[in-house]
Amino acid sequence: LEDAVALNARAPDDLLPTPDRGRGRLHLTLNQALPAGGGTVYLTGSRQDSWNPNQTDIQYQSGYNNTYKRINFGLSASRQFDQSRGQWDNRVMLTVGIPLGSSPRAPYSQTSLQRDSTGAATFQESVTGTLGRDNAFTYGVNANHSRGGGAESSSTYGANASYALPTTTITGSASKSNNYSQVSAGVSGGVVAYADGVTFTPTLGDTIAIVEAKGAKGAIVSNGSGLRVDRWGHAVVSNLSPFTRSSIGLDPAGLPPNVQLDSAQGQAIPTT
Which terminus of the chain is more exposed, N or C, with fewer CB under 10 A? Predict the structure, then answer.
């Protein structure tokens, strides 16, 4: 259904099959929780056929995840058929995640090590976190180093941050590698006009829901970082899944003492 919604927006001539367009997809997922403290194991597999009979995408992945005290770790192995080389590409990855502190907003560190069938090895490290009562400010730093597999060793370092204001989102990032340096900044937001008025939002996706809570100015919307009900009692929740039931909630912690919500939770199923 999600693909049908996307195709419905295209021109009629663009709906005809092309050789590289997907024709059918079969996906299988198995998850099993082990006895208490034993973690979970999973297995996924998919096969996607295109209108070109010589192009078939086949992937398999299996893994194990568990938690020891406050440390999250996982081991996975994947196999994907490489059409260009006509052979299988195998990968093994180990990930470890550790909160750097005991507070709810403590930075979170995630480390991953990956090796593939060509002999290439990749090391990735990232630290992310949020600040503010409603997590309006988010930040992250990252580092990446790869070597082997017939390619030169390379390293990349970067940092990013964003701040969600009531009507806009301000973002900035910087990165540096062996061959380039990059700095960027941006301001984004959206305007939604509908039958009952116009509202502004710091983020705007393809599928949205409009929250109407008259008199609830300042209430925190749990579906987005820094998202609050505006002075007119409106808020826009973005990036919902089409034809899927989604829960939308309001946190009364952001309301004045003399305001009470009749209901702090609602359901939405975007269809058009």
Answer: C
Q: At CA 150, angle to CA 145 and CA 155, rounded to 5?
A: 15
How far is residue 257's CA from residue 2's CA, in Å, rounded to a whole number?
42
Residue 229 has pLDDT above 60, yes or no: yes
pLDDT at residue 17, rounded to an integer: 54
Indicate the burial class of 222 (C-beta count within 10 angstroms; 0-12, 13-18, 19 or more): middle
This prediction's pTM: 0.70
Of 141, 138, 118, the residue nearest 130 (C-alpha) = 138
Determine the length of the chain.
272
d(CA 176, CA 154): 11
Q: In 3-state terms, what secondary structure has residue 193?
A: strand
pLDDT of residue 15: 55
Question: Which structure tokens are listed for 81?
Answer: 């058929």
pLDDT digit string, tens, across residues 178-228: 889 999 999 998 888 888 788 888 888 778 888 887 777 777 787 766 678
